[in-house]
Automatic annotation (TrEMBL):
It comes from Cyanistes caeruleus (Eurasian blue tit). One of its GO terms (molecular function) is zinc ion binding. Residues 239-270, 292-381, 595-702, 713-804, 1123-1233 form the PH domain. The keyword Zinc applies. The lineage of its organism: Eukaryota, Metazoa, Chordata, Craniata, Vertebrata. This is ArfGAP with RhoGAP domain, ankyrin repeat and PH domain 1. One of its GO terms (cellular component) is cytoplasm.
Amino acid sequence: MAEGGGSLPVAAWLSALHLDQYVESFQQSELWSVWDCRALTDEELTRLGVLLPGHRRRILLGLQKAFVEAPPPAGTQQPPASKPVPMKRHIFRLSAATGPEHHLPALEDPSPPALGEKPPADGRTRPPLPPLPAKRHQLETKCQSLKAPPLPDRPPVLPPRAVSQRSMLGSLSPSWDPPALNPLPRLLIPSGGSSWSDRDLSLHPSAPDTFPGSSPSTLSDMMYWGFLCDMEGIGDQKFEVVTNNRNFVFRAENDADRNEWIRTLQEIAEERKGKAPERTLMSLATDSATELANKSGFLELRGFKHKLFVVVSEDKVFLYKNAEDYQLGIGITYIEMNVGNVKEVDRRGFDLTTPYRIFSFSADSEQEKEEWVEAMQQSITEALSNSEVAERIWAVESNRFCADCGSPKPDWASINLCVVICKRCAGEHRGLGPGITKVRSLKMDRKVWTEELIELFQQFGNMMANQFWAANVPPSEAISPSSGSQERRRFLIAKYREGKYRHYHPLFGNQEELNRALCAAVTTSDLAETQALLFCGASVTCDTGDPQCPTPLALAERSGQRLQMEFLLHNKTSEPPRLEMVCSEEKPYSVHLPSITHNGFLYKTPSMVKPISERKGPEEFSRRWCTLQDGVLSYYENNRNTVPNGEIRVEEIVCLVNNPLHAHGIESTFEVYTEADRLYLFGLESPDSAREWLKSIAKSFVHPCAEGLLALDFERLGRLHYKGGLTLEHAQEGWFALVGSTLHVCSEDGCRQEPLQLRKLQELSIQGDHEVLVLVERRRTLYIQGERKLDFLGWVHAIQKAAGSSGDTLSEQQLTESDVPLLVDRCIDYITQCGLTSEGIYRKSGQNSKTTSLLEALQRDARRVRLKEGEHQVDDVANTLKRFFRDLGDGLFTRRWAPDWLWATALEDEEAKVGEYRQLLAALPPVNRATLKALINHLFRIQCFSGENQMTTHNLAIVFGPTLFQTDGKDYKAGRVVEDLISHYVEIFNVNDQEMKKQQDEITAIMKMREASSSGTQQAGDFICTVYLEEKKTETEQHVKIPATMTAEELTFEILDRRKIVMKEKDYWSCFEVNEREEAERPLHYSEKVLPILHCLGTESYLVVKKQMSMENMLIYLASRVGDCKHGMMKFREERNLLGLGLSTGFHDRYFILSHSWLRLYKEVRSHKPEKEWPVRNLKVYLGVKKKLRPPTCWGFTVFYENEKHEKQQWYLCCDTQADLREWFATFLQVQNGGSLWPLEHPKMRVAQPQQDARLGNISLIPLRGNESEMRNSVAAFATDPLTLLRNV
């Protein structure tokens, strides 16, 4: 470029850069010579079509080199000479005439951002990348013209800056250029005594540097412009440079050179102070250097008396005198690692070899040495890497994360599996062998990355690969970026060597059919099919039967399928996955735990793999000497043996259980659970000694973040995976401690959560085939996952026991949020709904057998009992409530305070009596006080309807007095207490007017509902519903009153009559239930009742009346088919629920058989045992599948299943053709509706509706949904503000 200068044609210049592909773009933009390109910037090159960062950098470096070394073309006006000033390394001078605004911008770093680096603030993304050039050019290396021109007879010097390029680019002033002292004057510096040493001094954009004259390859010291304070002559050709922390004395060869140096340094220092008065360059660089440091610390360097502070950052190694200089930004030098090589020398020493010097470092320990060597090797890799291939492959979204663990920016790949992986997973991939996976680097293995292979990764991507390899990964076996090496190795062996999680091809097991299908697939562009066939057993070298194309590779070549050829070539020697027994290594717990020491004799039983179901006798225990030391719990035959019988590593302990006293033949016992699903039972005769062992073991395995749990007197302590709060996407590990009926939770980040009161849980259930324990509290829901069966079962049983009633006192019952026993709350709710007007309520006795069974069920688990009208009689429920209070341990008023309550009845002054009752009420325990208030409130309501139920206050007192005080009925004072409490309910319990009005309104609404129900008309159940005609629009809305008896057919005629639409013979008008969230719809059967459907509709669903276009075809199919069953292949996908259970991604081919009562799913046609089966009567089938699931065809339906326990499932089915969809759907409808899809004759008009009862007014009542408690809440809300609920109608 120096020879041609700026007049060189742009075509020849780009050809020299091996960038001929951009010649046409440059010429179209009127850029004919290099001189025309002098003002190009990075953004302008992007607009020209130079999209690859490496290509833009190559062009800008070429321009910089051209205009530093070459004069402008002939005839160009030369600018006036100006005094040279130092130039920044990253500012490219176009000519002497160009001002600051003509400088080329700083080069953009083409490498991908490091992990944890924030994206650009403007949010711009990289443009798509063009194909790679045939070969790379040498101009990608560092351009030496950025430095001051070296002397002709001296080799280039080492760059002196000790900060990264990024920090330098961001801190130098763009208008400052270095002085061109040509030739540089020689300087002498004092070297001891009266002698002087010959030195060179170079001016650098960031510092003036001195180099020994005899060894120019090493740097003696650096002085940064920001630290210069003063320069002055001191005679005899000498001058002194004063800095913040040191003074330097130099001597020039003559006074003229000395004066020139002083003048130049003073000018530069003054200009630098004006440009950057606040912060120096190195101080600005310190922050970013600290963030970018891969490793830092002190190392010994041969030739230096003291240790140096060394920093490895990206592709450079920086040397500082000490840590303070590092913070100040005062460095010695840095080493470009693209020319470095690291070699271990001895146990603590290693050499960093460069072309100009060997740096011999020594670390403090062997482990430290290995860490430094690894960090420097990574720095060399970073320096030598090329990111163009990675950028193109990362352009696919799924390729930006590791296919195995999800780490961002993976820079390795398996070229035969077509997955992009991170460095840690790549190391484990190599251990699988080249027959399984062939690992290559995206940045260093340049030769392997042909254009076809890059396109293959762009089309294939991690998403398509994982749809095959990771189709069935259980959440408990998946790995994350933080997983350890053993976890990764175990997962990758199962994933690729065994194929444990792969999506099996339907032809799996039939070698001949697999080969035939492979020969057909390679002639198409379906890479996913080829992958599935190949890794399910198809041979890549199978005989095609075609003499001209004997192999699948030849078939792909003839068909022009380049990517299929590339995929087959890389899998010529690949081994298909095979299931084999692999000895699983136990996963170590990766937290550094404190070292606890303890020893002594313990009684021990043999380890178990099943929960302890029966009491262990003393004869089953053996006395063993046990020691807890260095994180290992060892047990010996006796205290004289040196070889243990067995060991338990504390990091493998997942749970510790403190059993109740005398639970086994030994007085005090505790259980230890490990990750290997084994249970160890230990015991001691002394409870204090057992407690010491428990505390020692707990301290040794509990994470430091959960130390607060150790202070609790726990019954069970351990770690579990759970989901809760707003983070339901990923499970996190937490520490749990069960203390009585309280569950304490500590998250993995050390945050102590509010304890769960298990007896106050609203729901406690097990979901997902006994894999998830769901705990629902009023304010939160917690999902505890069972990754280890033995440990999880123990937690489930313990939590269920703690959440149930444990005794006969009030405080030991299951409670509501208001501290009222759930049993009492359920009974009161039911009687309020159904028995307020029942004559003789609480006076009549129910059936003794039913009362006994109901009381036992409520005491066992009141959450599971639902009291329903028709199933339970009012008198049975009332008798259950009375018996509960009569048998209550310690009584409602407690033995301590019951006599005082009875004594208070003797007070004649009513005010004094009420005051005494209030004091006694405050003295009761909280649960007793809340229960008494709830009961008296209920009795107060009962006596309000004494005209109907004949139960006055006095009658209620006669019944409940002996019951609550547990007397034989002879003491009349008990009845007097109850009568006083009911009569003075408002004063004693401080009930305000608002609460009383709310209760009265609630009672009034309930009575209206009951009165309307008993009158024989169903109009009280009517409510207004919005129905749409053909589509959901405002102008198509129809507001219809829906009585309980209305069918879908009648609703359809109602809408058509309103719009005066006449139904023709072939018109199949139906009412559809549309679910907007699921993007699906379901035609209602003509005889289906509408009101129950409306009760279940969510806010995202509505009803619409429109034509059912496929009904005629379905009727024809049903009339012509033989038999009642339907079978065939469909694509199946199970919905992933909130816990991440179910099939994760993709649809899977499955074989289905639909009979008159069951829908059965088989893995394949030849399977004899179904994988799943569902009763047809419990299925709801909707047409359509939501788009975000990416169904393989547009002919699918969504299926909802709900069993008798109200547990719900959801899954999706896809058919290959529309005809298949119609046939399956018609069969579903026929089976579910007894063979009738459409009425034989349509009624001409709807049956006349009964007249509305005038007593109810013109406003329809809101339906009461759910259980009794929810119905009460609905009525109360309606009574408070009727318009609020009617707005949704």
